[in-house]
Amino acid sequence: MKIYKFLSLLFIAITLLTVSSCRNNDDEDVQDTTPGNLQVKFENGFNNLGDIVLNQTTQTSSSGQKHKFSTLKYIVSNITLTDENGNEFKYNYNNPDKGAFIIDQSEATAGIIYINLTEIPKNNYKKIKFGLGISPTAYLLGQNGQGIFWQKAKDEGMAWSWAAGYIFTKLEGMYGTSSADTMFMNHCGNMGDTAANGTPDLYREVTLDLPTTARVSKDITPSIHILADFNQYLSGQTALLLNTDNNMAMGSSPHLVNVSNNLAKMFKVDHVHND
Question: Model pTM?
């Protein structure tokens, strides 16, 4: 009888210890909300085949026009991540000093330009959204509200005067029919306060589904690999032909509105690494 009571008490004690341990582990899992990091990689190419080599890689548009880039730059800002429940995390939204980046093909490493984001809330993310350019809201913060990024943009040739604003996309190179032998410069951007000036707003937002969930934690830094297909420049939703009317276009002319619309469609997520 004593042995039976002893075994019963021992079983109860072990059960209580097991339950307590599980609860402690569950509490640790719930409480561990340590943020992590996220890497976003941009690879610029034509038809998503290989990376663009400046002054070398030549593409033929749907209109039969050959073109190659000597300069390929664009601004990315307002990165937003959507989790599995549809909740959004906005990374330094409308804060260019901390949340805007210049993608410059001349700085690519093995064809890739890297953006490293820090202090990302622990979560499983299934979508990424970002702005192509700087939003009108961010611009209206004024020059003092974004002095660090404004200076960086000026240093890298991605800005006009403050009254004119940022260059969102900067494409320069050569074009032609039989060979690419004529210079072009297409610089897209808003002309200051678009609402006050009555000029087109060329800022575009891009939303992309992730083929694999990005699982951000203190131990995992996911890498989202985005392909940018610059065949869309002249061969996108609106087929464009470079000529003497638009080959030196800067600002927000109708041609550059079409360029901006085309380029907003060039992105896709190729894959996600959870390492």
Answer: 0.89
